[in-house]
Amino acid sequence: MSFFTGNAESVDMPRLTRPAPLRQGVYEALLELIVTRALKPGQHLVESDLATRLGISRQPVREALQRLSTEGWVDLRPAQGAFVHTPTEEEADQLLAVRSLLEAESARLAAANVTPEAIARLREICEGGVAALEADEVDAVVAANATLHAAIVELSGNKVLAELAAQVDRRVRWYYTPVARQRGPESWTEHAALIDALAAHDGERAAQIMREHTEHTRRSYHQRPDKEVT
Amino acid sequence: MSFFTGNAESVDMPRLTRPAPLRQGVYEALLELIVTRALKPGQHLVESDLATRLGISRQPVREALQRLSTEGWVDLRPAQGAFVHTPTEEEADQLLAVRSLLEAESARLAAANVTPEAIARLREICEGGVAALEADEVDAVVAANATLHAAIVELSGNKVLAELAAQVDRRVRWYYTPVARQRGPESWTEHAALIDALAAHDGERAAQIMREHTEHTRRSYHQRPDKEVT
DNA sequence: AGGCAGTAGACTGTACACAGAAGCCCTTAG
DNA sequence: CTAAGGGCTTCTGTGTACAGTCTACTGCCT
C-alpha cells in the first residue's frame, strides 16, 4: 500500500535454495573426478567407500552411478559394481567420427540463425581462447574451446542435437585433454574461419570447415606420442 | 573319467540363468508401457504404486526411472517424482532431423562394409515388411521397419553411432507409431532402392536415399490428421 | 460468496539393515 | 612344490523405515 511497491516478488531472491538433490551433486563430483583422471580408467568404484567419503548413504551414490553408466562414463557389471570406463582406440575413433557429424550439422544450421550479437560473442570467446593459448594456460584453452563449440551448437536451434553433441563432446574431451597442447594455433585459426563463414550465413562452408576442423582433431589424436599413458 | 566326456562345461546351458537385475526388468517393462501408450504422456508415475504392482520394493523402480529420465522417456521433477515425457511438436521435428542425420551417415558407412550375405539378409527383412504390409499387420510392419534400420545402422561398423541411432529411433517410433499406417508402400519402395545402393557400394547414393526417406517420414508426421490425439 | 490460512494426507528423498553372490586367501592332499 | 577345494571377507542387490516437502482439502474470516 505504500508508494514504494516493494513486495516479496520484486525482491531479487536466489531462487530459495532448494535442498538440491544429492544424486546430482554426487554425479557432478564423480564426473569431475573421472575427467580429471583422479579416478583412473578401469578403477573399481565401491559404493560404500564413495558414500562414506561424501558423508552420505549409498542410495544417492547408486543413482549417480546409474546415470554415469547410461552416459558411458562407467561400466556397471552385474553383481560386481561400477568400473570407470576404459576407452579403446576404436571407440575413440568412432566417437570422434560422430562428433564430426554432429558438429558439422550444427554449424550448418547455426549459419542460418546467427545474429550480429551472436557473432560478436563467438569472436569474443575466440579471442579469449587465443589469449589463453599465448599465455600457455592449457585449462583455459580447453575451456574456451568447449565454450565456443557449445555456443555454436546451441545456435543451431536444435535442442536434441545440442544435447547429443554436448554429450559426445564431453567424452571426446576426456580422451583428448592429454594431447590438447599439441594442437593449438591451427585450431584457433580454423575457429576464426568458421565464425567468418557463420557471419556470412554460408551453412555449407561452415559445415565443411567444422568437418575439417574435427577431422584434424581426430588425426592429432591418433598421432599423439603418449599412446599408452593412463 | 568315463569315455563320455560329459562335464558340466560342455553342456549347452542357457547362460546359467543369472538372477537378472530387477532394475533392468523394470526398465524394460516401463518402456514397453510407455511406447504402447499404456502410460500416457504427462502421467504421474508413483514409485510405491509401481513397486507394489510389480511385487518389489521402490529401489529397483527408482533406478529404472533414473535411466528412463536420462534417456528422455520421463521427466524427473525434484520432490515431485517422475512424469511420462510429453513430446512437443518442436521436439519431434528436431528428433526427426537428428535421426535423418544419423541414419544417412550410417547408410554411407554401411555401403563400404556390406557383404553379399548382409544384402541377402536386408532383402529378407524387406520382403517380410512388404508381406506384413499387404497383410495389414501394423505391428509387424513397424517391427520390420525397426529391424531393417537397426541392421543397416549396425552395418556401419560404428558402435557409438549405432547406439545413438537406436536411441533416437526408438523415440521417433514412439511419436510416429500412431501414424504408421499412412506411410507404407512408398516407404518400402525406398527401402528397396536403399538396399540396391548399398549392394552397389554407393555410399553417397545410399546416404541420399536414406536422407530423403527419413525426410518423407518427417513430412508425413507433420501432415498427420490426428494432430491432438493423446 | 470469495479468498486465505491451517492442517492432514501422500509421495519423494535419504538412511539403515540384511541376504546372496563373487573373489581371495589359506589350507590340505597329491 | 603344485593344485584343488573350502571357508572367509567384501561388496552388491534388495527390502524396510523415517523425515522433509508438496498438494489438496476444509474451515474460517472478510
Automatic annotation (TrEMBL), chains A, B:
Keywords: DNA-binding, Transcription, Transcription regulation. It comes from the Bacteria. Residues 20-87 form the HTH gntR-type domain. Transmembrane segments: none annotated. The keyword Transmembrane does not apply. InterPro entries: GntR_C, TF_FadR/GntR_C, Tscrpt_reg_HTH_GntR, WH-like_DNA-bd_sf, WH_DNA-bd_sf. Gene3D superfamilies: GntR ligand-binding domain-like, Winged helix-like DNA-binding domain superfamily/Winged helix DNA-binding domain. This is GntR family transcriptional regulator.
